[in-house]
Specification:
single chain, 596 residues, alpha+beta, 16 helices, 29 strands, elongated
């Protein structure tokens, strides 16, 4: 480890210049074209108490030797790997800016075992034709050492013209670096940079390390859309756009940028620890999260081409009353992530009970989702869907990186709401809040009300003297004081049960006036000492002696749906009916992930 108080320029045996300072987990910094290792001094000063920091002079810059005449990214990556070898570092996080971000990706792709995580700042990716042409024309027109016109044009692109007073010091730092760089080293590197924006287009899917792609909202050359596209392709990619920042945000706003770098490195370290802990069950974690009953929304925006975009989400919440802020989450792998992460705003449409079909369509990959709904532009231009319980029309306040999702924080500019019944979602199931109460309120007095009560993968039964088994049931839901009702039956046997969602409703085939209503729920163990109470494993229920064929059929369906964690409601009679799915299984994730 390096001395935390030192920031001493050094040279490796191959002539590579570098600065090393600090103590802790190793982090390698790689600068952009025209800069040097010294450009990272603000980050080194802020991070050296916690990290072992190495800033490299890339080939042709600082005191490092020139790159080959027709250099490739591999030449710059190999230089960095040789430096790690020289320093005795088997593994490091790599932070690259602009051209340095391309080199950081190349290192992670060529030597994945050497890279713990990657931070790509203001990286370029698949430049649009007009931008690609402009960059290549600049590369072809490079003049001699310290060309004043070229330097002035570069400073204007990076900081603005005129330069804002708050950025004067940062612009002066960048100008000094450009005036000091070796002309031939600059030219060889810039020519590579001008053509390297597609170098990893087909390879990012193989980037195994956690990767953060961070840029500024005002960076016209390394745009938010580019960072979003790279984050979407990288398996563990994340995108973060800093509002108001431009290309040289590392020196224009060093505290803000460094804070996000260190936060990401900390999260990557925690994630690595969690993955190493085999006891953490991601599937059960998702199921546990699904226990939280939420509403359902369709989030909408307009993309750069002016087309409406939308996805279904239940990860919505209020944030603040003053100012009025709300948030929603979208998966980074969602098709609509780029459109939403780079948009100026979005609308959140809270769905009603009769908009279940629309929810399913917007959770799918349907080509024309908006053909299924009636909508109109809201105050900010975002699509507002007719019939919604409430609508919040928002401008983009902040985009926050959060693991495999992005958090969209919106400032509410306009809203509407009505008294219609909202649609709910819980445990992979759509929920209509009024359904259970309405079903029982309309039921005749003789309705049989029963329950499938589960405890740790077992279902509660009452065993009769002849060895047959019955589910708990009674005449109506009733009260604990009514021994004929379901609640009275449970109370008499001291069974602490929680009734959940409606599961089956059918008419008796022999007596049309008699209806059966069954719920699913949970029961707490241990149970009372009643010798007739049995808890039976779900996969053993088929072996039980159950007199009622309709109940046998219902239990067989429950076993199937419990395995898939997708439930429906049976409506019909003892002989025939239909299972009405409350939710369609999403192909890759729950609805809150946003596949729009």
């Amino acid at each position: 480890m390096a001395d935390a108080a030192a920031m001493v320029p050094s040279k490796a045996p191959d002539g590579t210049g570098f600065i090393r300072a600090g103590s802790g987990a190793p982090v390698l910094f790689i600068h952009g074209v025209g800069m040097s290792a010294a450009i990272w001094q603000p980050q080194i000063a802020l991070m050296q108490d916690r990290f072992d920091l190495i800033a490299i002079d890339m080939l042709g810059h600082g005191v490092s030797p020139l790159p080959p005449q027709n250099a490739g990214l591999a030449d710059f990556a190999d230089q960095a790997i040789r430096l790690l070898d020289h320093l005795g570092l088997d593994r490091a996080a790599v932070v690259g800016h602009s051209m340095g971000a391309l080199v950081a990706q190349e290192i992670a792709l060529r030597a994945p075992s050497r890279v713990s995580s990657v931070v790509c700042l203001n990286a370029v990716f698949r430049r649009p034709p007009e931008l690609a042409q402009a960059v290549r024309e600049r590369a072809a027109a490079l003049g001699g050492h310290g060309d004043p016109q070229a330097i002035a044009a570069t400073i204007a692109r990076w900081f603005g013209d005129p330069i804002p007073p708050a950025l004067a010091d940062a612009a002066a730092t960048a100008r000094t670096a450009l005036e000091s760089v070796d002309a031939e080293g600059y030219a060889r590197t810039y020519r590579l940079f001008a053509h390297a924006d597609t170098a990893h287009a087909d390879r990012l899917a193989g980037l195994s390390a956690p990767a953060l792609f961070m840029t500024g909202s005002e960076d016209r050359n390394s745009t938010p859309a580019m960072s979003a596209a790279m984050a979407r392709l990288a398996p563990s990619g994340q995108c973060l756009v800093l509002t108001g920042e431009k290309h040289m945000m590392t020196i224009a706003s060093p505290k803000k940028v460094t804070q996000h770098i260190t936060a990401f490195l900390d999260r990557a370290d925690v994630s690595a620890s969690a993955e190493a802990d085999s006891a953490f069950d991601v599937i059960e974690f998702r199921r546990a999260l699904g226990s939280f009953l939420t509403g359902v929304t369709i989030v909408t925006t307009v993309d750069e081409a002016g087309d409406p975009r939308g996805f279904t989400a239940n990860s919505f919440t209020s944030v603040s009353l003053e100012p009025p802020l709300v948030l929603v989450c979208i998966a980074k792998k969602a098709l609509g992530h780029q459109a939403f992460s780079t948009s100026r705003g979005f609308a959140i449409n809270i769905l009603s009970e009769n908009q279940k079909a629309a929810s399913g369509i917007f959770a799918s990959k349907a080509a024309d989702k908006f053909a299924s709904v009636i909508w109109q532009p809201g105050q900010t231009g975002n699509p507002v869907i007719d019939g919604s319980v409430a609508v919040f029309d928002c401008g983009m306040e902040q985009l926050v990186d959060a693991g495999d999702h992005s958090i969209l924080i919106g400032r509410v500019h306009d809203f509407t709401h009505s008294g219609t019944q909202p649609l709910g979602y819980c445990r992979g199931t759509y929920v209509t809040p009024g359904l259970s109460q309405e079903a029982l309120a309309a039921a005749p007095p003789g309705t049989e009300v029963g329950a499938i009560l589960e405890s740790d993968g077992r279902v509660l039964f009452f065993e009769a003297a002849d060895g047959s088994h019955q589910l708990p049931a009674g005449r109506g839901l009733g009260a604990a004081s009514d021994p004929r009702s379901l609640r009275g039956t449970l109370a008499a046997k001291v069974i602490d049960a929680d009734l959940g969602f409606l599961y089956a409703v059918w008419d008796d085939a022999t007596d049309a006036s008699r209806t059966h209503v069954y719920y699913r729920g949970t029961v707490s163990a241990p149970l009372s000492g009643d010798g007739h109470i049995r808890l039976v494993d779900i996969d053993r229920m088929a072996d039980l002696k159950i007199a009622d064929p309709a109940v046998r059929s219902m239990l067989a369906r429950y076993a199937r749906e419990r395995t898939e964690d997708q439930f429906g409601v049976y409506v019909g009679n003892e002989v025939e009916g239909e299972v009405r799915p409350l939710a369609k299984a999403a192909p890759t994730a729950a609805i809150h992930s946003g596949h729009g």
